[in-house]
Amino acid sequence: MHRIRYLIVLPLLATVCLLMNCQKTSLPSASLNIDLPASDYQHFQLDNGLTLIVEEDHRSPVVSVQAWCRAGSITEGPYLGSGISHILEHMLFKGTERRGNSEIATTIQSIGGYTNAYTSFDRTVYFIDAPSAGWRTALDVLADAIFHSTLPEDEYIKEMEVVRREFAMGFDDPNRVLQKLLFDTAFCEHPYQYPVIGYLENFNRLTRADVQDYYQRYYVPNNLTFIVTGAVHAEEVRDALSKMTASVERQMIPDIYIPDEPRQLGLREQHIEFPTDATRLYLAFHIPGITHQDLYALDVLAILAGQGRSSRLHQSLVEEKQKLRNVGAFSYTPAQSGLWAVAGTMHPDSSFTRDEIVSAILDELQQFQQRIPDQQELDKAKRMVISDHVDSMVTVSGKAASIGNSWFIARDLDFGSNYLQGITDVSPADVRRVARDYLQKNNMTVVSINPAGKAQAAETGQAEVARTAQASLSSFSGGLPLVEISDPSLPLVTVSVSMKGGLLTEPADRNGISYLTAQLMKKGTLNLSAAEIADQIESLGGSLTVQSGNNSITASVSVLESDLETAISLLADVVLRPAFSSEELEKERRKQLSDLKLELDQPMRVARNQLRETLFQSHPYSRNVLGDPAAIENLTQDDIMDFHRARIAKNSLVFSIAGHYDTEQATSLFARYFPASEFDQPATGPEKHAAAFGGTGQTLELNNDKVQAIVQIGFPGISIHSEDRVALDLIDQALSDLASRLFLRIRERQSLAYFVGAAQLTGVDPGYFMFYAGTRPETSLRVRDEILDEIRLLVQDGLEPSEFKRAKAKLNGKRLLQNQSSAQQAAIASLNVLYGLGIDYESRYQAELAALTLEDANRVAQKIFGQENYVCVIVQPDQDTSE
């Protein structure tokens, strides 16, 4: 299984509640009267103590099957601090009494399913998402692995090495290092102080017998909950699981003592150096656990302080004073003691010291202690909670996660509705009270990671269609195309505009202008300031995004259905009338330059950028979407305005609407706010770029100051219009899954890499196909050679029939799972229309996939990889890598 967690991912919105989905009635609020669909979960207790929760959802033909074990890093007893829960997570799917190594992944992929897992403080969770026709197989595979794993010795040796690679990744990741530092400093007695992955020296002492002992003690039916959501029938699931686990008996569970964290009596600080260009920091305060009544006011306080661009911290410290690159606040409330915290990243060239930043944050927090928020600000925060809650109900996997969290943390399937009621009841005085009670200096922990020489004091620097709904194409205002997907199941609606943009429209000396233009479009219009835009959208509990990539720019607004007109009006203002003020231009220019520097902290991106530059040579795809620093420095207001003006042309835009709306009303609103008179400018002809691929079989080595090594190998690829697209997508899936030849050869059999796989860029112009791996510096060249040898075998012998069958099922299942959201379907359909593929491209793609043969796939593999026209990039610490 591919592992996704090193330490817990801190929730940005506290206990919302880690994706809740348990209310049975409408939200009881006079001021925020939103009707939410009632949940229909069913709770079963099997004879052996195993808990089963099923929620039927027949809107999409997909299912999520999850197993939640009440065993995590804080329950490890004598193994505390070793990461034994995490290594067991790695081992659980390595073979059972019925299925050998890799057969589990093969079986799941044969039904078009995806599997993953994570370990946290108090739990380990395994899940399989798949088309609903395979629910019984998914349940059987999961139950078999949970209760009958054999934990083979040879696999244990391999996975120990894999986890050591994960340790190395954690040592290189500034956010993980900072989070570990926070918990290590804030907690003195509670085992939250220990990282979920453990300490390397303790981990190295573990034996397979230790893991076997831990598994037998905790993976028992009365310590597990199975959750199934999607297009299933609850009674059938119950009966099937009962039969599958009939021979598994209830067991005694170890009684683990978990000490309470004593009250903090004074400021705690810890600051360390790290190879980075920017200081990152946390200010954290101890708060009670999830059952305390202050939970609701603390969550609202976090939203008001640091959630969204209209929040006080963002407006003051990012927008107005430009003291921070980004800032946010969260309220983390697990079952026991929690943390309320502010997280911030300084600009790489900041002229402020770290102490000045801490002081500025505390000044802003003090405002909450002195004055109560106004009712409008408070209602905005509450609406954000409701909107996030509705959004969490879009996918079956999200539903299962929300149910699991409500049950696991609060042991209450109705926790969601109770939580929303508690949020609704929060008063302005409640917010001020909790700010006074908890945000005290003697209750504060400050930690940071800093560039070399700045740990003690920051020095001054220089400034199948997944749903039943189908996409249709209509028009308004004299021919502007409008993609429509109606989905009345949830009270959400998303409107968007996609236009030709991105790298393909940028001159070489303007690299980065598309990204900068997109950022500025949401930072003020002729009618609204940046702060007013942020306040308006967040007052609706909605979201506004403007994104630029390789081929296009897309602006999108998502709101509750009752706010459709406001959404279309705001979208029109952002798209047609951006102000591009000099003040906002300088702010965004600085942020973009900061982001370019921060990319240097990510070896995968460093390698990717070099790979693209070498492979594409003079073609625009050789450049960074974020731009070139020198080009960004020279961009003027006139440059931005001219670039934007060229994007707004009648036959260069596609509009879309998805969700719950009235068609006649929507078309009328689009015509009103996007009149034909706004699109008089003729579209310029498409940019023509000669393909220039520089792949000659060379290897480039870049040095950094990280621990791990990254290997990337790129071949010239195809465009979205290529007749080989479906076949190459299938090959991508075959080489990326957990039963792939690359994964089995390099990670499973040889333990050479923590991760290995394939990816591709498929654009309007031909892109690339990339192989990648994360490994040790001393084995980087060997990993390169192993990948190249496997590519040669693929060209010579082709995919095996079993590989082809699994990859086809996986690719089909992937598209089903990705297209659960009508907004996502509309986004894809809009780009298909924009790029000339047509509104029916998705159905044609599915037909081509169904008709694809093994011979077709192997022919394309020979065509793409049959020549030595690759580029290999290795990013690693400065050392001799010779074998």
Summarize, please.
41% of the residues lie in helices and 18% in strands.
Description:
It is a single chain. This protein is α+β, with helices and mostly antiparallel strands. The protein contains 30 helices and 22 strands. The strands form four sheets. It has a six-stranded mixed sheet, with helices on both faces. A hairpin with a 3-residue loop joins strand 15 and strand 16. Helix 9 crosses helix 15 (428-438) and helix 16 (513-521) packs across helix 22 (637-647). It is globular and about 75 Å long.
Tell me the strand percentage band. 15-25%
Which spans of ≥5 residues are poorly predicted at pLDDT below 50?
1-31, 458-468
Distance from N terminus to C terminus (CA atoms, Å) equals 30 Å
Query: Biggest sheet, open or closed, and with what strands and sense?
Result: 6 strands, mixed
CA-atom Rg in angstroms: 27 Å
Question: What is the helix content?
Answer: 40-55%
Topology, number of strands: 22
Class by helix and strand content? Answer: alpha+beta
Number of helices in the DSSP assignment: 30
Structural shape: globular
On the 0-100 scale, what is the average pLDDT? 89
Query: Biggest sheet, strands in spatial order?
Result: 1-2-6-3-5-4
